[in-house]
Amino acid sequence: MSISAITQTPSSPTGLMRIWKRYPNIIIGGAMLAIAVFAAIAAPWLGTIDPQTIAPFNRLEVPGTEFWFGGDLVGRDVYSRTIYGARISLAVGLGVVVIGIFFGLLIGILSGFVSWVDQILMRVMDGLMAIPSILLAVALISLTGASLKNVIIAISIAEVPRVARLVRSVVLQLKERPYVEAAITAGTPFILILWRHILPNTLAPLLVQATYIFASAVLTEAILSFIGAGTPPSTPSWGNIIAEGRTVFSIAPHIVMFPGIALSFTVLGVNLLGDGLRDIFDPRFVSRT
Amino acid sequence: MSDILVVKDLVKHYEIGGTGIIDRMLGQKASVVRSVDGVSFSIAEGETLGLVGESGCGKSTVGRSILRLVEPTKGTIELAGQDISHVSEQVLRPLRKHLQVVFQDPFASLNPRRTVGQTVAEPIGNYGLKSGDELKNRVQDLFERVGLRADQVDRFPHEFSGGQRQRIGIARALATNPKLIILDEPVSALDVSVQAQVINLLVDLQKELGIAYLFIAHDLAVVEHISTHVAVMYLGKVVEIADKKSIFNSPKHPYTKALLSAVPNSDPDAINNRIVLKGDIPSPTNPPSGCRFRTRCPIAQPICTSEEPALEVQGPGHKTACHFAKEEA
Prior knowledge:
The complex is a heterodimer. By secondary structure, chain A is mainly α. Chain A contains eleven helices and no strands. Chain A has helices at residues 2-7, 15-22, 24-41, 78-113, 115-130, 133-144, 148-174, 178-185, 190-226, 238-246, 254-280. In chain A, helix 5 (115-130) packs across helix 7 (148-174). Chain B is an alpha/beta fold. Chain B has a single domain (3-98, 178-328), classed as P-loop containing nucleotide triphosphate hydrolases (Rossmann fold), CATH 3.40.50.300. Chain B has helices at 21-25, 59-66, 89-96, 116-126, 132-145, 162-174, 192-209, 220-226, 244-249, 254-261, 302-306, 325-328, and strands at 3-16, 31-44, 48-52, 74-79, 82-83, 99-102, 180-184, 212-217, 229-234, 237-243, 312-315, 318-320. In chain B, the strands form two sheets. Chain B has an eight-stranded mixed sheet, sandwiched between helices. In chain B, strand 4 (74-79) and strand 5 (82-83) form a beta hairpin. The radius of gyration of chain B is 21 Å and the shape is globular. Chain A binds chain B through residues 119, 177-179, 181-189, 192, 196-197, 200-201, 283-284, 286, 288, and chain B through 21, 67, 69, 93-94, 96-97, 99-101, 103-105, 108-114, 119, 122-123, 126-127, 155-156, 158, 169, 172, 175-176.
């Protein structure tokens, strides 16, 4: 990848073309995520009907011109449910990223700078990480009850230690850097050192991590819904649709297939975007033109 | 001339191991690394002390202790008559503008995400010395003073070469008009031709601005041109300290002699009596008894094992820590 990037002539006409040549992952992954986001936002205008409408006449209807993705066990439109399902998945992904990064950043910075806090916080984080995230989420949801909000919180708690560890390691590395020490000797107050020298250099690995958290949260939500511990069954989430379709998989595989494709498509897109971002965020590639 | 920096009996010990919960439950004691073990020297205004020694001898730790990037275990550090060795960061901050630093690695000493102009302006902004156009002019002046162009201020570090970056580091150190700059191996990472340029720049700046330097280096050749005084460190201790002439013309400590014999001579016909030291530098966790240099010393005697030589005056301004300094001379 890097070798071919160097040998290519950098004389492409537009910026977008250049990015495409250097970092195709960003364009492909970004486009896939954009499609998913568009589907979620524009769901009511994409030829969908109410995803809860039950039409017994259309039970297990095969995909066709009227029902593009067919009908499910009780005759609901799989196409509409899949499109609306994007809303649930992306909301969970975004929510987990925001909450997880916020608390992870806070804990990571704190333990990176204060060593006695570090001892305590990191042991707690180790404890949280020792529990498989799905199991932890299932336990938390069974305590609080299944709702979209609780699913987001439960998955976030499982993701916080990963962010905290990443931030802590970056902070530990950065605070020994000569430019941070030079800032200390230059009399820069601690808050400004954090703001100018530590946070901006944490951002790149954090953004990459955010994409992986996003993808993992979307998957975890689907798994939780699939095993019945996620959003309430009536909610059109991809995990729920797949879970319901599972029982009739042999006679109506389309019920499982379409939300499955949507799920893979979204997760793959976010992961590709993350890989691309990781390449582009190397400061040596920063272009000033 | 008055002393800008006086360091007395500076000690920095690091504890390694034995600090974790399990170590403590098992009653394991931490082992102590005696990185700096009683170092004293002073630097007069406008002078340069070259601090020389092998890797791991504690010379950088001395510099970092003076800058308070590490907390000294014991001893006092007086900057312009004020003891800064144990004061809080709040008390220290206004004093820091008199004391700046240039680091060894020009690639790691500049924040890659900030323009070099922002980097140089940072210390000035911290003390509210200048703002707006005045600040901009000052940064451009500093750039020209260290041999860069004023229009380069908006560039990023990765657009500069190693030597240029070191000049930027020097500009940052100059920004607050300090009285003392700690130069922690400022040219070790540079090409020989660039080394000479940077050293000449430092010499010129000192003449012009009267700044004192603590120049930390691992070879005497680099130090020779810039220093007025030289201190030689071995395993956490100063073994010899004198003005430059005495050190180079009449070294008294066998370690200094060995270091001097390694300095390349420009005269190809000169007879090179190189003293090659055997073995490695011993571990600072468990330094040898008596004289620390005895394990590698070509003239070691039984007394060196039992008694530690004190740093004694051998001549005007010349101190050596060796039992045989007088005889050798």
